[in-house]
Amino acid sequence: MTPTTTAAKSSSRQAAQGWSERMNWKGKKSMGKALVCNRDETTTGGHVIAKASTMFDGERRIALDREMATCGRCPGEHPIQGTGTEMDEDGRASVLDGDQVLCPCGANHVKASPDAGCST
């Protein structure tokens, strides 16, 4: 093995360790729900604004509890109540299909993209 290969593997291991310290996958086997990502829609015509997570579904950032979403009925941005406790990052649950957006109308929920590649 060349020194370059050894260094690359060591660097890869360190990156994986850092990732596993930030992200906690509880690994329960269940049917699961799709994870919601940045720019996914809501039931009232709004969209998800995910900025905090270091986890991605393809090129789209996965949304975490207390990230924001807009509502087609209520002005402004409102927090999402993430319920994906089987997969969290730094203690923040992931946002799953159907989770509630805490806006004044009370009718707004997030919808995972039809092509979502991740679920819990």
Automatic annotation (TrEMBL):
Q: InterPro entries, per this entry?
A: PAAR_motif
**Record region (Disordered):** 1-31
Source superkingdom = Bacteria
State where composition is biased (Polar residues): 1-17
Query: Record's Pfam families?
Result: PAAR_motif
Q: What is this protein called?
A: PAAR repeat-containing protein
Source organism per entry reads Paraburkholderia phymatum (strain DSM 17167 / CIP 108236 / LMG 21445 / STM815) (Burkholderia phymatum)
